[in-house]
Amino acid sequence: MPGSAKAMTACTVGGLVVVTAYSVALGSNGWLWFGWVVLGLLTVGVLVARA
Questions:
Q1: What are phi and psi of 2, to 5 degrees?
Q2: Using CB atoms within 10 A of its CB, is residue 28 exposed (0-12), middle (13-18) or buried (19+)?
Q3: What is the pLDDT of residues 1-51, one digit of tens each?
Q4: Dihedral sign, Cα of residue 26, residue 35, residue 38, residue 44
């Protein structure tokens, strides 16, 4: 996996942790989850394109 794909994967996992912590602490926010899903789909697209 190239460096850019690793960085994007790390950002996606980190984003999941942040969004989950936010949801637990302050309540769910649909826009945050939507943004995380979009980031996840972009990460999957980068990983598929690199493979």
A1: -65, 165
A2: exposed
A3: 678 889 999 999 999 999 999 999 999 889 999 999 999 999 999 999 887
A4: negative
CB of 43 closer than 8 Å to CB of 8: yes
Q: Furthest-apart CA pair in the chain: how many Å?
A: 38
Length of the chain: 51
The two three-digit tokens of residue 26, written as one number? 């302050």
Is 36 in contact with 2 (CB distance < 8 Å)?
Answer: no
pTM beyond 0.70: yes
Q: Residue holding tokens 């942790």?
A: 17
